Amino acid sequence: MAVPVQPNRVLMAMGLDLALTLLSLYLAQRLRLIIPLGHPLNEANVALNWPVYVLTVTIWLVVLAQFNVYARRRARFRYESGLLTLAILTALLILAGALYMSFRQVSRLQFVYFGIINMLLLNAAHAARFAYRRAASNRHSWRILIVGAQGPALELADRILDQAPAEVSITGFLDDHLPLGTQVRPGIPVLGRVDQTVQIAAEKSVSEVILALPRASQERVLGLVAQLEHLPLQVSLVPDVLDLAWFMTRVEDLNGVPLLRLRESPLDGSARVVKRIMDIGLAALGLVFSVPVLVVLAILIKLDSPGPALIRQRRVGEHGRPFDMLKLRTMRWAPEDHQGDRAGSDGESWQNAMPHKRRDDPRVTRVGRFLRRYSLDELPQLINVLKGEMSLVGPRPELPWLVDRYETWQRRRFAVPPGMTGWWQINGRSDRPMHLHVEDDLYYIRNYSLWLDVLILLKTVPAVLSGRGAF
Length: 471
Prior knowledge:
Largest sheet: 6 strands, mixed
Radius of gyration: 27 Å
Helix content: 40-55%
Order of helices and strands: HHHHHEHEEEHEHEEEHEEHHEHEHH
Number of domains: 3
Shape: flat
Strand order of the largest sheet: 3-4-2-1-5-6
Number of helices: 14
Strand content: 5-15%
Number of strands: 12
Distance between the termini: 39 Å
């Protein structure tokens, strides 16, 4: 949850970041003279033309805005710092390409100095701004009154307490079924009944009233919205229709008629393009370095047990479309188990497929155990990523027979492409039963961002090297 953006503060923060970026260019220039790390230089050698300053400021302005650095306040500084750092690295990459095409006289060492100084100055500025917001949160708090104290209301309160910025606080709850003063959450009491909403909202000077009543109270909700219209506060609604909280939703205007579109993917527009570019770039690079390794592993697999080294497994991908996932064989080969598209796992029939892997599975070969421990059997899936059937990061590729047993809410994991790694891999891998993976997948979909993808990729490396939960 975010406090509404205040344009003046955003402009001031943006102006300060751009000023610090210009200062970083100047300091890099001075540092290049002081620490040349080579032959001595004079002022003329390191001086930058004014178009370089204009180009840099323009790139930083566009990139910081695209990464929504100013649009949302985070509950913890490490989240804000992570997003800011990713934005700066992206801007540096764009600037490096632009300088290569135009002002090649800018030295690489001076560029490195600029990147380091800019990273430090902007993170310091955002840290100071974050500390100021925390100090001022008691004086300028965004106070929320939640109408309802059951189901969606409690889930909403937990998320606000866990994720909302310091400026956000819950004043209390209103409910018809709990006694006055009941502590629904520590320090957050029931202040009255639902029909006292307008009175209590005015008395407590709340900034926002969130209506989280059950779907049977639709007429009552509409009445409260009308009654709150004259108060200077924000009114929000938590939908309790068909468990909408699990859906990706988007409000769209159709000739004046508002539509709440369900099953929206978080990968619309530029987000999908950026994710695809990252997939193609990293998968192509990974495949180039993996080819020699794959050749060696294929030879070892053939020497260890009869059967093909590379196998295809039917999986269910984005929008429920089936595809053949590539994988190195880790089990003893049983040709009768690979008739048609029913194979669940290499050497394992559809009928006998197990919903939870066993550590001591006798069908796994000696080489297969090594491959599984370090996830080397999944390297061929880089080809699936290049083909667009998978992504580097996403939900676990699912077996068709398991999908046939899915409940309705579980099918929402197909809103994005399946991934080679994901939130579930860095939170337990095979140690956890398959039905718990779906909740991890839905968490990833609801909280998708480019930074989350980068974070998962970074955490995958130690998870794979440790071999934790892999068998």
